[in-house]
Amino acid sequence: MEHVKDCMEPSLEVCEESEGKVPDDLTFRPSKNAAIVEIGPADEDGNSRCALTESEMDTLFHLARCLAFIGRIDFEIETEEDLENYKHYKKSSGIEMAEDVKEFDDSKLSYSNMTEEALDEVWNIPFSHFNYDGPGRKINSQAEEREFGNGVGGNRVVYMHEYLQLILPELYWKLRDIASQALQAGKDAGLFDDDEDHEPISHLGIRVLEYLEYNHKEFGRSSQLGWHRDSDSIYTMVITLAEPGKDFDGGEFHIKNDDDDILEFLPSAGSGVFFDSTARHAVSQIVRGRRRSLPIEFWAMGEVDARLWRPDLESGQRQVATEECDVEDGIYQRECWE
After folding, report:
1. Strand, coil or helix: what is 12?
2. Are strands 248-250 and 235-240 parallel, antiparallel or unpaired?
3. Distance separating alpha carbons of residues 1 and 166, to the nearest angstrom
4. Do 222 and 280 form a contact (C-beta atoms < 8 A)?
5. What is the pTM of this model?
6. Cβ distance 20 to 74 under 8 Å?
7. Which pLDDT value is given to residue 179?
8. 3-state helix, strand, coil in the chain (%, to 5)
9. What is the pLDDT of residues 177-225, one digit of tens each?
């Protein structure tokens, strides 16, 4: 965690300036045909603010790159193969290592002066170059290349929920507040049930918070996401972090309603959608560029240790907040997390 904080140091002031506040003129537009709420600009004249500012989106990308570079490094060199893999990792990350290194000691390394070029170099090669099984551990356990449907689709993912919460708390709470307002807008329109299985956001933990990137055949496979549900989750919010038509083409978000009608959405950068996690949804194929997004899934369990990646209801969970904070009326208290 400390290495990630060091790597993030240049970006921390950006989110402090936003104070974690949801824009007063942020619009929430419930659909008339499915359990989904659009978040963000309502017209082409720019009369509505985006959910996230450009600087906040840049900060999220910086955190994703830091995690792709550092992850939760807890690594011991025990074999010659471990040493060679470690040397390759350090060479790829832009940090020099003495030839006579025989064991890993990251206490002597500084990540606060990482250059943009070094972070970009790590980001622009497959994460699988890092995700090898070491001596009982994985280097860079926060990032992976995911394949779906026998290689037909896939994405790159960085699991960042706990890190965002502890390193960028204002941004974390802003995202929670946006989800809360989106849910209320949907309930006011009659989209979401108001029963014990559909509690307010303040009563729900974040199951996963992922930085996703879909790119057009950059790593040898097409990039899309087939029809699926976010099983075990209650609500899902996805904020787009790249501009359609500029940064990528294709990549439309599709969702099915109860009649199996398909609705299509293509939010602009900084905008997004909020929907019932049980609704079937998909992402069409990327035909150019890179589509980046931030999906957040809320569930009835507590806040999750990022090392669990995508836990299910059968997994043992570790809540990040203290028990004293969690038990107060079952509501997550902001002051307990700061």
Report:
1. helix
2. unpaired
3. 9
4. no
5. 0.80
6. no
7. 97
8. 30, 25, 45
9. 999 999 999 999 999 877 666 788 988 888 889 999 988 665 555 577 8
